[in-house]
Amino acid sequence: MINERNHVTRFATAVAALSLLTASLPAQTIAITGGKVYPVSGPPIENGTVIIRDGKIVAVGASIAVPAGVQRIDATGKWVTPGLINSSTTLGLNEIGQVRDTRDDAAKGKDYIAAAFRVWEGLNATSVLIAPARRDGITNVVVLPTGDQLVSGQAAMLTLSDGMGSDMVLKTPIAMVAQIQNTGGAGVGARGELLVRLRELIEDTRAFMKNRAAYEKAETRDYIASRLDLEAMIPVVEGKLALLVSADKSTDIDAALRIARENGLKIIIGGGAEAWLVADKLAAAHVPVLTGAMNNIPSSFASLSSSQENAALLHRAGVQVIVIGNAGGGDEEAFNVRNIKQEAGNAVAYGMTWNDALRAVTLTPAEVFGVADRIGSLQPGRDGNVVIWSGDPFEFTSVAEHVYVRGREYTAPDRQQMLTERYRHLPPGQGMPVIR
Amino acid sequence: MRRQLVSIAVLAGAIACAPAKPGSPPSPATRKDSTTQTGLGGMSVPNADPFPSTYARVQSAPLVIRNVNVMTAAGPMIRNGAISVANGKIISVGTVVDVPAGATVIDGAGKYVTPGIIDTHSHLGVYAAPGGQALSDGNEATNPVTPYVWAEHSVWPQDPQFPRNLAGGVTTLQVLPGSANLIGGRSVVLKVVPARTVQGMKFPGAKYGLKMACGENPKRVYAIRGPSTRMGNVAGYRTAWIQAEAYRRKWDKWNKDHKGDPPTRDLGMETLADVLRGNILVHNHCYRADEMAQMIDISKEFGYKIRAFHHGVESYKIADILARENIGGSLWADWGSFKMEAIDAIKANVALSSNAGVKVAVHSDDPSGSQRLNQEAAKAMAAGIAAGIPITEDMAIKWVTINPAWQLGLDDKIGSLEPGKNADLILWTADPFSVYAKPEKVWIDGTMYFDRLDAREQWRTDFELGFVQTPAGMNR
Q: Is A89 on the interface with B (CB under 8 A)?
């Protein structure tokens, strides 16, 4: 199918150099005053103050004394929130979708298992798509391995700071990514067989743990996965690392819950188009769901009962919901990481409360991925990831006027802005408007 | 304080005499290759409308929506205004309107009315949900030049994406073949209405479009057999147009003198010949500025017009040329970077192009985006404002209404709220440029086809029965 909806993403070196140069001075104190502050961890604060020092939030409240000599930002009439988190991206891993050399989001794996694959290690920190995401108020992203293998690899939480991938990683791994709905992608013939393979991987990981010495001497039977893949699966079978299971169909979600229960796994459901049909089971099992808020098309036989009310219904049933962008049309994984704002707004239009939707793109993902002590809310001790919005962040006309990442504001023009400026005024004839 | 005039006679007169929108050229009747009538034992003739529209307006009571904010797409928004509709046409729009006898009167306090949304670039029906090979009918990727295929022959009227588009306020859409081919075939313009047949959805009197495609897609799809390069692409277009010129001359001569046997029909050439005669509008998928400029030169070489470039992610680089040539742009608000020819996508593309005088439509090429073209337009407007281009809602509403109507050659019938035009309307729960706004009700030709507040007024396709579950008390 050649309509133009192919996922994306990489490019230049010039902008990376720029972003390094343009971080404002570190180790300073910033006081944001007068705005309506949404800490997310607590109720909104009218005329609130947020103080960031040395990259960390040090104070949030209504009557905070602003120390002398600090940089004051007047946010009167503005909205102040934590930086938003897009929990399903390939930012820095898929620069230009159809250009193979710019893609590092999917491992080949061995026998449809790539558990040892740490997708962030191939991260292109010079991606030209990072700056536009940050400019629009997204300060953290989850990078996910893609591909339809049974196990596609490890996810990481990044901070959209400058530096290399290793500087941007906030936590890794935060989840092991798997899928139980695409038989072809995992080289099997039926859904049940996918589950057989997953159970086999779990059992072999346990056997590997118990028989390590024998394994090293090649005295064990053959295992389903390679040594490093088995190694990577250990925290999953121990219930310490979440298995993020892609599943849209209600019966597949039920199967994931069953396997988790049988094996004591911690799981998260990704996609979850029909999750609303099993909302009570998900709530009872305390299983979070990552889902978009603009899915209402029965676009496959696995997602026939997609509903725009999915996020709201799940939330109402007591499920932890993370709003991601997985159906909006517009490359929300890389080029338009910002469009989780639109997703969150649509979640509100279709039944979530505004506060819950904000939580679904800030504190909830931080909690689910184990980084709530660092990001997702405005509290002392958290990273200085703060956005000052001209209005409601979910509205299209609102602008992220100031975006702080670990207390730094990035203001250099991104590649799109450079192009915009270059072609703002077209010359007569067909020559270039400017050439530098 | 609205005047209430109850006069059926006056009203009927008004409708009968409803003038066409001033300033809009009438849509020329489709010219035929031959005046010979076909019939039993007769002769088939080219371009004789062999699959005529059977759409018929459903009779419904006159309608007045009052106390509502009216975005007309023809002028500034009328705050707390009103609109009246009868016999499928808009009767009047203003701060005050007469209420026809028997009219359904809706109070629109706090709400907004706009024209129905028009999507110039859809693959609904030809890439129907739930997808898969069985429903993959959008690209006849067996030959790089397939002007002989018609999208309507692939459209599945039971595609469950249709009612979702309608619920998003889309009342008219152009369904195009895909972009695998240099010349992909005829498009079809549909009303988003339930029907047993495609003919029942076809917009009466709408011109056909011809889908053409530049750049990476054709050369990727035909890498082995060719064209495998951009220069191969251009040779392919020109070769086809050279054939079409000869074919047109041959038929035009025969149509004039009827001497001897008529020339042999060629399905593909019939379509291309009618493009050369100006009866079919060219919709050209093209990303890069340099390629668009070359396509314009090709159109001049053979004497046809490009009605609109589709996708045109680099439209902003040649907005002056597009405006001068009166070529529309069907553009995305914010898609880019998914292929090499899309890396220069900028979010201000729509605003910069529009500001330079290009008739811009915000299009979807996506069944999800199509449902929310108001949101796409809002993003494009916001991107323009952020780049210092003063776009207003009155301007941006045109991107999804009157401008796409013009690109489809239907701006005399739809796309704005003016007396005499088809009553394709949306009542929005809030300002349509807000992320929280949803169409509450949608009318096509004055008949309500969707009501968010009443599940009985929500079209469910055959496919959805049993297969698709809907949350209780919710709507799509």
A: no
